[in-house]
Amino acid sequence: MTHWHILGAGAIGSFVAYRMHLHQRSYSLLHHHQDVEERVVVDGEVETALVAEPLHSLKRGSIEHLLLTTKAGQLLDALNLALPYLSPGAIIACTANGLGFEEAMRGGLSGRMLYRAISTAGAYRDAQNRVHIASLGRIRMGAADGSTEAPHWFCDSLEPLEEWRWEGDIARAIAEKFSINCVINPLTAQLRCHNGELLQGDTPGPDLVALCRESEPALRALGLWSGDPALLDTAVEICRQTALNRSSMLQDVIAGRPTEIAYLNGELLRRAEPLGLELPINHALVNALR
């Protein structure tokens, strides 16, 4: 059975480790800077303590499969810390939101392929650093080369987890999630609200309408949003489905942690600038949440 080292004992890393624990998959949950010996995961009325090991306790070259579950801004530092412990043929995957970090990541992989995973799972940490499972959601993983067949290590370790799926066109899936994250996450962070509070009954609130109307033309021009439904319609549906969820950006703001705004709306602004597109609402959000 494939053994995964999960680097990042935050909400998503603990969520993945907990699901592997339940399905009796082989894993190690790692941390690299905080003094953490365990992570308690709360799933309804059940609390499970998971062991969290320090990265430096591993033997050099011993990691064959690494899942990076840190935020986008911490990815490169986490990868650099993990490099001495990677085997020459190690498989590396990351779950971070956003775009704009891939080239820097690949530059440090020494020819190894970087796999991406995108998640709609809901998990958050409370004041006691316990991780609460809000919803299983779905996690899609894929390769940059568009491989349609799932590799053996995915089939024997991740596919048995009910929420994991192999995605042949991961680039499109990432682009769509990027687009949705750009219009939901920063608004919930700025307004300090749950996803469902961006709606007014069955209709979108004015902030969501304004941001979608500004962002969709730029996202379409950049090839990041190509679906038939309007961006606003899709955002409304997701807010309905995840009404009680707190976005990861809102969680970061509440906890006083850096947000991923630079890899979402900041990256949208960077890519839109050569097209001469002005996006004042996006600018204001980036300035407020940077």
From TrEMBL:
UniProt entry keywords in alphabetical sequence: NADP, Oxidoreductase, Pantothenate biosynthesis
Enzyme class per UniProt: oxidoreductase
Residue ranges of every copy of the Ketopantoate reductase N-terminal domain listed in the record: 4-145
Entry protein name: 2-dehydropantoate 2-reductase
GO cellular component terms, semicolon-separated: cytoplasm
This enzyme's EC code(s): 1.1.1.169
Record-linked Pfam families: ApbA, ApbA_C
Pathway the protein takes part in: Cofactor biosynthesis; (R)-pantothenate biosynthesis; (R)-pantoate from 3-methyl-2-oxobutanoate: step 2/2
Protein family according to the UniProt entry: Belongs to the ketopantoate reductase family.
UniProt-listed GO biological process terms: pantothenate biosynthetic process
Spans traversing the lipid bilayer: none
Domain Ketopantoate reductase C-terminal: 169-290
